[in-house]
Target: Putative hemin transport system permease protein HrtB
Amino acid sequence: MQLAWKEMRHNWKKYLLVEVIVILMMFMVIFLSGLVKGLGRAVSSSVDNMPADRFILSDDSEKILTVSNLTPDEYTAVQNKYKDKATPIDVQRTYLQKGNKGDKQDVTYFAIDPDGFLSPKVTQGKKLTTEKNTIVLDDDFESTGIEVGDTIEDSASKIKLKVVGFTQDAMYGHIAAAYMSTDTYRAIMKAANPAFQNTVHGAALKGKARGAIAGTKVYTKAAVIKAIPGYQAEQMTITMVEWLLVAITAMIIGIFFFVINLQKEKEYGVLKAIGVPMRRLVGMILCQVITIAASGALIAAALTAGMSAALPATMPFFLEAQQVALVLCAFVAISVLGSLATVARVGKIDPASIIGGDFQ
Model:
């Protein structure tokens, strides 16, 4: 360790240069990690935040909430089996507007039982109740000028809805969510389409499934999230780029140490000749690699965390401590593996040829 620090202090300009490169590259990697999580939550946070473990959907739904359709008999069977452990859920993308001349805004309705466990926590106003034609919006709608107490209009049915509260981090398919009672939702759907039937898309379930119900299948929350259209393709693409950048950044450290140690073969030969054991030389190299990689990654993480506080609320960015820690650990591990080429090169140095003057 002491030998490693002495060498780094002596050639501080070279090591500072690679440290700056590591910080910049890892800043980009961690920022991209935040975008991956942010975009993922923009697709799924309304479902991900639900205190549900599983969802009961129709057996032909392909795990997609908006495609599922439970008949009254099927949902009655669900209620009889699970009691208060199951609650209805409907998901419908539509438009709403503030006033007759207001611009139409995309929204995803979540129709729920206000007395059930899916009722969202509110950050402003009051919780959703069974009161007719009331709605709780994601706080993204605040940026459009909508406030608690305002009256908005469902564009399809022209039914007026009173905003009673705001919740946060409720998105579905990159569209802000809105919560209403199942009765209000059915009134809207019947006004827009008189042929609408009183079915539900599915049921959210707490706990484990207990046996099969004809015409239905039980899926985990993770499976339902992955089935949201566009979720997997989006996540896989950006995640692949993220890990590619991690590997490239680690390779940069490996190449740097390989080149810089090529220039020090005489010094390594002399150290071997005077009896410095190979394990000490290996320890020096690994200590330098870990120091550069870990410190650069931690500085980059701190810079990214600081910058995230200044990003606009509408930007899909979310730093998850567990994911950042995984990226940092993987980066340090790959950097150490990349340095093994340097270790192998140093191990092949023959002190006799160095002392004898045969060094090329």
